[in-house]
Amino acid sequence: MKLSRERLIQSDGAVSVLVVFLGFLVGTILIALVGKNPLNMYKAILQALSGYNIDNGKMNIRYIAETINYSVPFILCGLSMGFANRVGLFNIGGEGQYIMGMTIAQMVALLGPQVQGLHWVLAILCAIIIGSLWGGLVGVLKAKYEVSEVVSTIMLNYIALYLSRIITLQMPGATTYKTANFPETALITNDFFTKITNYSLLNNGIFMMIIAVIVFWFIMEKTSLGFGMRATGFNKEAARASGIPVVKSIALSMAIAGAFAGLAGGIVALGSFKYGRVLSGMDNYGFDGIAVALVGNSTALGTALAGLLFGMLKNAQALMQSKQIPKEITFIIQGMIVIFIALRSALILYQQYLDKKKLQKEVGVK
Amino acid sequence: MILGMLPSVLMIVAPILITAIGGMICEKSGVVNIALEGLMAIGACTTAAAHVLMEMAGVPHTLSLFLALFMGLVVGGLFSIIHAVAAINFNADQTISGTGINLLSTGVTIFASQILFNADRTKEFMMGMQTDALGIYPTAYIAVAVVILSWFLLYKLPFGMHLRACGEHPGAAESVGINVKKMRYFAVLSSGVLAGLAGGCVVLTQTIQYTSNTINGRGFIALAAVSFGRWNPLGVTGAAFLFGTAQAFAIIANNVPALKVLPSEVFNILPYVVTLVALVLFSGKNYAPSAAGQPYEKGAS
């Protein structure tokens, strides 16, 4: 019994489950406190998760597909944050990298060569490249000029937002909120998915996301590059002393992190919309990616699962609103989850306290 | 023309400066608070909601303004307790708990508006703060008072020296009998209180209601002003003025025909680019309190 408790405290996965549970608990209590029925929130979540509408007994597979589609950018932005996190960096810049990826993808979609099979590939590739440049810049500033990545990424987020507006407003057919429609060759829609899922927006982005998850896992766990990065994250000085190029590790890891977020931007631009968007505010996928990576403990599989959770919550928002539950409850749940993750260090203190008690008992001190 | 700009510059600078001073006090004690943005939002929402409700109840205007600002300040302080408990008692990662509060604030503020006003924003109030004879909002005077008080507190009183010691070398501070936890609690709470107050100042001077776009990165700019201002009140004031002027310029540029050819976004970018370039140019020597961001474990050396 005692052993299992120790194991649970030390298991990252178990703690993540506990943290998510606590987040939902707070959300449920809050809904009840303001006089609404928490059951409606769970009905919405059930429908987002399984497509089953418990009130009229109807099943619609479109909801499942939308949940998956929403989770694609969450997972990719989570990978972005997670990758930097493993090297000991805090990438708040996922949002800016995402916006830049989206903007360039839109630009290539509108201006690029309309060749079947090449057009969208080019757009996605450009999104990945600009994302990695935007992230790599942070890495260079950090490694060379010791500019805190927390501050520089925040600045770059806003620069990206306004830069995106400047660029997109110059695009063909641009009004204050959208551009002309993309040519068919730029879209990554999947007709088969559209047909079997009742016209959901699920698209080929899901395949790219799966590849990205595998690439993340492979670089981190199976290459010497990933080893050097993880070593830098554990102990920078020890890594430097054993000959790992720390500066290069930092810059490169931020570039790779940016690539994931840039890809997310490209997928959203070409998969979920048929025209370029002139952003009036941030999409917040990049910020939520922070929470996704934290819940997923910055591992490939954990981040994928956490991203699905967040995608489901986002998909459930509209359903909640229609059931008179303010949809902002999902943001509160997400925020509480992150706060509980911060508080998990209390578990370590608790474990130390238990160990001390045990030791005192063994040596017979009262 | 420069003089004519001054009132709007002051209007924009005041809340950023108030928040940045709070952030500075917090980092001086050894706790990094990236939740400033969220705390400002919470203060802004509280103030806007309180003011509009009191207006409807017929509370006199000045009293209502004062009470609304006070409530924003208190609620900002209350939410910062989360950060204090996480960072000081539980040795949590301060960036994570700050991010958590930022995420939470977007939810809490709009959720509250949904409950109170049945909309994704607070109801518009009829009258915000009024300018004085010089065209300057009272918030500017509040900011000046905050700067002077913080300087006096940090550099002229033993209390301030103790607080700074906690940020430089908590172990040494503890060994001469300073209660590091208490000091850090004071610092985190004051950053919450000041951010809440600043949020209220934004709402009452620059807009007529709280929406999810009201704060729009001002807290993050304040955070940058702390490091750009090298963690001292005068430097932080200078940094806040630089950003504020850059932001005011975006508004002014709209009225200057020669600058109108450029898209307004060019001026919107300005404060962020200036910050980034400044951080690179003035990099090198590290002025940050040496223990900032590190949890302090009593007895561990």
Polypeptide structure, described:
The complex is a heterodimer of chains A (366) and B (301). By secondary structure, chain A is mainly alpha-helical. Chain A has a domain at 71-304. Chain A has 16 helices and four strands. In chain A, the strands form two sheets. A two-stranded antiparallel sheet of chain A has the order 1-2. In chain A, a hairpin with a 4-residue loop joins strand 1 and strand 2. In chain A, helix 2 (12-33) crosses helix 15, helix 4 (62-86) packs antiparallel against helix 12 (246-272) and helix 9 crosses helix 10 (224-234). The longest helix of chain A is centred in the middle third of the chain and has 27 residues, at 119-145. The radius of gyration of chain A is 22 Å and the shape is globular. Chain B is mostly helical. Chain B contains twelve helices and no strands. Chain B has helices at residues 2-28, 36-57, 61-89, 94-117, 138-156, 158-168, 170-175, 180-206, 218-228, 233-253, 257-260, 264-281. The model of chain B has no long low-confidence stretch (mean pLDDT 89). Chains A and B meet through helix 7, helix 13, helix 15 and helix 16 of A and helix 3, helix 4, helix 9 and helix 12 of B.
